[in-house]
Write a structure and sequence with these properties.
By secondary structure, this protein is an alpha+beta fold. About 40% of the residues lie in helices and about 15% in strands. GO terms for molecular function: catalytic activity.
């Protein structure tokens, strides 16, 4: 240390000697402060600062050495166990200085701090005690690029000195500064200078600076600011409090001077309003649902909380007269982040919508149209029912009665209820509860009987009428009700805004998850690693479980070694992907102007809003068009439509499973409860479990082939396995074992032989690894209310290795099984499709029409077809077509002892047995199903039958009542088959009648004693119009689709419209015009 002091003193003398005249006397440290030259004075202060730094460093190192000696002595005296001693001696070393050269940072050494900031870019480590003596200076210009480190350090020190010199006695200021360093990595191209951290010797200096802070503007200009050194957590809390203060000032009209910060708490007029926490601002009172509505066609009202996912969006909202149809997706109406409930009309006009933030659990409890009623239940700590209503003026008596009846039942419950919407009752005098029309008078009686409150006191229509109402038995929890000027020209109703205190809602926060990055893998190295793996224990074993566990261990080890792990953070933005920075900026400007127009609706503001809104719409449309075009170009380059399909799925995909699901009286909200509820429902559709037959008991049964011509064994070679592995689709999902198809495909060379041994052993021993029999089921929504469990179907994720074995068995038996499959079956068969079935059906229809015959077609649907196949009867049918021996025993093992569990957001349910059905998502499942229902066409004697998997179409020409009796007789035969195998779903079975006669023969048909409904499908209505049109034009015969010189595609184009024509059709609901 003494050497460094002498060095700096010598440097000072030599430096000043060069700057002074040759005859000037030598200058030492004690005479420099008296010099008149300000330049020398600043140099002197800088060198004195460095000497103080050296002294502080020496003092700190001495303190650290003393601490080490004390800790060592304490550790030697401790009589604890070895593990405790190690912990006690190691733990204090976290505070010790690292003597690793200049790359380590010491908070008390500014030279080291600056060097390391500019090399690494990390923030200076500072503890809580040190922060009290720190200040951070912003806006001080940095030295130009190319200057040395020493010059930059002197420049920063002199700049800080010049700023605070007017605030403190300059004679003592230079000795008060201990650290002066830039924060962050040096970037010469940056326009914003890095802040400077300054550490002082005492708190009194900082207090003096803040006491004289008003001198800052006159001494250094307006670009420099000073604040205390806050920790990362304190800065985050400060940001949260500032946002909440801004919201209170702009939205609630609270004066800024009445809002105070104390630590992480916010006070209004001395009362605690809330605190900044990990999840954001936490109000001290229950969360409110407030109101500013999204654009709507007619009468909107909504609710928006202080703590919604997007502060500019409401937490809940309702819209009446949506004019939506089922062809519109929810995302075309509202952004993501909402659970949308709709009641659409199939006809023009009407419709209501109710949207709730997706993190608020809500369940649909009622929905109807004409009148439009939609009710949901908020599943929060104190449940609340929200109901939106729209009834058109001069509705029918039945509509009025239906609405009043439901409102009576709704308010009869003990739950809080809020009913809002467009009632179209302008004649009601709410002060006296009197009205002139019958419906309005009955509505007044309902309000009086249930002691309800009507919260709207102002006109809600531009003509001065109060049409939109809020009826509730929950008045104490509704506040800030206001009727606002609607900024949307398409609505003649005003915007209704209110706060609903609905209890606290716990918002779930997604945590980053880890995943494997299979696109950045050294697959050659992984293949070599598996080639070097010792699989000899597998080859010497005949135990399928052991062989699979050994192969699985090798593959998982290779995955851990070669596949990197990446952290995935959920994308929280509710905006589409084509929203860039400029669009987000324009959107914020429009929202700001919209709030300004609500408070000050001057013509200038409204005009500005209109222009900004129009510009934003054009920009959004252009950005979306460019984004879609880029996807198309990328797909053309990649020769794959995966990006386009992913974009379409992102548009139509909603939250697959709502926060609350129900099945009858049962409901579930947590992931585990939902998974168990889904699993119990999927289990309930299975057929009862019967005992499996033995192969010996089947020898007496008739077979369709001779015993010597059957199929009893198959053999695989490594080349067969290699081909199956290389043909895997790498984009498919992996099973529960964690092994995906990409790894199997890329490592086929190393895995083909051990897997071949596993597959041959499995078939020879008629045994399948138990892990392959576990179904990890994912619920997939079919149609209807998403909160109802019965509206989902199960899709199983099976092991990819088991699918490889299924593919090999399928390829070996398909040529043998295909001749047994009926020619009436067009599903899951090579060379057959729905198009061929359609052509055959239309050909028969045309033929009957030409012969002046009526055609009755009956469509039958099997109830839970794939899940209801009885295993014992399926095995009998396999034996009947000649599958015997060890192959039949293998199928018996394949179907038996299977279990399933349901996965909801990574949470698994308990396991339940799979007692019937074929595995959905498997390779062999569809083929086994075709074998099971293959005898359906052979049951009929008079009619024609066409099948596509489980969808059955029965039709017959009708010229006399006897033809109808023949059709009914064959239906009775099919009904008898369904009683012994799989039941028909009568609710989805229907009749379609094709006839050009003005008075067709009307005959009713029954199945299982239930009459079939006569249906009029639009596509067949269009077909009949085409037939009538062609008959009017000429009497030529219609196209014979059985002509041999026409290809299937040529016949299709001659009879049905192309997909391009369908897309060009102006109507979204009918294709009648195409004919």
């Amino acid at each position: 240390m003494e050497f460094l002091k002498l060095f700096y003193r010598q440097f000072l003398v030599e430096f000043l000697t060069k700057k002074c005249t040759a005859n000037a006397p030598p200058t030492d440290e004690t005479t420099l402060p008296n010099m008149d030259n300000n330049h020398y004075k600043l140099i002197h202060n800088s060198i004195v600062f460095q000497l103080h730094v050296i002294e502080d460093l020496k003092k700190q190192l001495d303190d650290k050495n003393t601490r080490i000696q004390e800790l060592t002595a304490t550790s030697n005296q401790t009589q604890s166990s070895d593990r405790t001693t190690a912990s006690a001696s190691i733990a204090p070393t976290e505070d010790l200085p690292h003597d690793n050269g200049p790359t380590q940072r010491d908070p008390t050494n500014p030279t080291l701090n600056i060097n390391n900031h500019e090399s690494s870019g990390h923030h200076t480590p500072r503890n809580t005690t040190d922060r009290k003596q720190n200040l951070v200076f912003f806006g001080i210009r940095e030295s130009p690029s190319g200057t040395s480190f020493q010059e930059r350090m002197e420049h920063d020190y002199n700049a800080v000195f010049a700023i605070i010199d007017p605030m403190i006695d300059s004679g003592h200021l230079h000795s008060s500064i201990r650290v002066c360093s830039r924060l962050g990595k040096y970037n010469a191209s940056s326009q914003r200078p890095r802040p400077i951290l300054v550490r002082f010797n005492s708190l009194s200096t900082i207090k003096t600076i803040f006491r004289n802070i008003q001198r800052l503007s006159t001494s250094s200009g307006s670009n420099v600011s000073i604040r205390r050194d806050l920790s990362k957590e304190e800065r985050r809390h400060n940001s949260i409090l500032l946002k909440e203060r801004h919201r209170l000032v702009t939205e609630c009209g609270i004066t800024k001077s009445n809002i105070k910060f104390r630590g992480n708490a916010l006070y209004i007029n001395g009362s605690l309003h809330g605190k900044a926490g990990v999840a954001g601002f936490i109000a001290s009172s229950p969360h409110n649902l407030s109101a500013t509505s999204p654009p709507s066609h007619d009468s909107p009202s909504s609710t928006s909380p202080p703590n919604s996912p997007d502060p500019n969006l409401p937490r809940a909202g309702t819209v009446t007269e949506t004019w939506l149809s089922p062809s519109f997706y929810d995302k075309e109406v509202l952004p993501s982040g909402y659970s949308v409930f709709r009641s659409d009309r199939l006809s023009r006009g009407g419709g209501v919508l109710l949207a709730v933030a997706s993190h608020i659990p809500a369940a649909l409890i009622y929905s109807q149209s004409d009148p439009d009623i939609l009710a949901i239940k908020l599943q929060i700590h104190s449940p609340v029912i929200l109901c939106v209503v729209y009834i058109p003026p001069q509705s029918s008596h039945l509509s009025y009665s239906s609405l009043l009846s439901y409102l009576h039942s709704l308010f009869s419950s003990s739950l809080p209820v809020v009913v809002l919407g467009d009632f179209n009752c302008p004649d009601i005098d709410w002060s006296s509860l009197s009205a002139s029309s019958n419906f309005s008078a009955l509505l007044c009686e309902l309000v009086y009987d249930y002691n309800l409150s009507q919260c709207i006191t102002q006109p809600t229509h531009i003509k001065g009428n109060t049409l939109d109402l809020i009826l509730t038995n929950y008045e104490d929890n509704i506040s800030n009700v206001s009727v606002l000027e609607s900024p949307w020209a398409t609505s003649d109703h005003y915007l209704i805004s209110f706060f609903l205190s609905a209890g606290r809602v716990t918002k779930s926060h997604s945590t980053p998850s880890s995943s494997r990055n299979y696109s950045d893998v050294d697959y050659s190295g992984m293949d070599d690693f598996l080639l070097d793996w010792d699989f000899n224990p597998c080859y010497s074993s005949q135990d399928v479980e052991f062989i699979w566990s050994h192969i699985k261990s090798a593959i998982l080890t290779a995955i851990d070694k070669f596949v990197p792990t990446v952290t995935i953070t959920k994308r929280h933005s509710h905006l589409p992907r084509w929203f860039d920075g400029s669009l987000r900026h324009d959107l914020k400007r429009v929202r700001t102007m919209r709030r300004k127009c609500v408070s000050r609706p001057t013509p200038a503001n409204l005009e500005s809003l209109s222009q900004m809104d129009a510009h934003l719409k054009d920009s959004i449309a252009e950005a979306e068009s460019n984004y879609v075009l880029s996807l198309i170009n990328q797909s053309a380059m990649d020769k794959s439509n995966a990006l386009i399909y992913a974009h379409i799925r992102s548009i139509i995909k909603q939250s697959v499973i709502p926060p609350v699901v129900s099945l009858g009286p049962q409901s579930a909200s947590s992931y585990k409860e939902q998974a168990d509820l889904f699993n119990n429902y999927f289990f309930s559709v299975y057929s009862p479990c019967f005992s499996f037959p033995s192969l010996d008991s089947l020898f007496s049964l008739p077979m369709q082939v001779h015993h010597d011509c059957g199929l009893d064994a198959i053999i695989f070679s490594p080349s067969d396995v290699f081909k199956a592995l290389t043909n895997l689709d790498p984009t498919k999902a992996m099973g529960a074992d964690g092994i995906g198809p990409r790894v199997l495909k890329m490592c086929a060379t190393a895995l083909c032989e051990p897997l071949c041994h596993l597959f041959c052993t499995s078939v020879a021993n008629s045994c399948i690894p138990s892990e392959w029999k576990v179904h990890c089921v994912t619920p997939i929504h079919k149609s209807g209310d998403k909160s109802v469990v019965s509206n989902y179907r199960p899709i199983s994720l099976l092991s990819c290795v088991s699918k490889v074995l299924e593919r090999l068995i399928y390829d070996n038996i398909i040529d043998y099984v295909s001749p047994f499959v009926s020619t009436s079956q067009f599903g899951f068969s090579r060379g057959r499709s729905t198009l061929q079935q359609l052509l055959i059906f239309l050909s028969d229809i045309f033929h009957n029409i030409d012969n002046k015959l009526q055609t009755d077609a009956i469509y039958l649907d099997l109830r839970k077809a794939f899940d209801s196949v009885p295993h014992d009867k399926l095995l009998v049918k396999l034996y009947s077509i000649g599958i015997t021996g060890e192959l039949w025993e293998w199928f018996k093992s394949y179907l038996s002892s299977r279990t399933q569990c349901v996965s909801i957001n990574g949470t698994l349910s308990s396991t339940l047995p799979v007692t019937s059905g074929v595995p959905q998502g498997s390779i062999l499942g569809p083929l086994l199903f075709l074998i099971f229902i293959n005898d359906i066409p052979s049951l009929v004697q008079h009619i024609s039958v066409l099948l596509y998997a489980d969808d059955t179409k029965c039709y017959h020409p009708i010229s006399h009542i006897s033809d109808s009796l023949h059709l009914q007789a064959d239906l009775d035969s099919l009904a008898q088959w369904s009683e012994d195998n799989i039941a028909f779903n009568n609710t989805k079975s229907f009749l379609i009648r094709f006839s050009l006669h003005p008075s067709p023969l009307s005959t009713s048909y029954c199945i299982d004693g239930q009459p079939l409904e006569l249906s009029h499908m639009k596509c067949y209505d269009a077909l009949m119009k085409m037939l009538i049109k062609k008959q009017d034009e000429d009497d030529d015969l219609l196209l014979d689709v059985t002509e041999s010189h026409l290809t299937v595609d040529q016949q299709r184009r001659a009879m049905v419209p192309s997909s391009t024509d369908v897309r060009r059709c102006a109507s979204r609901e009918s294709v009648v015009e195409l004919f």
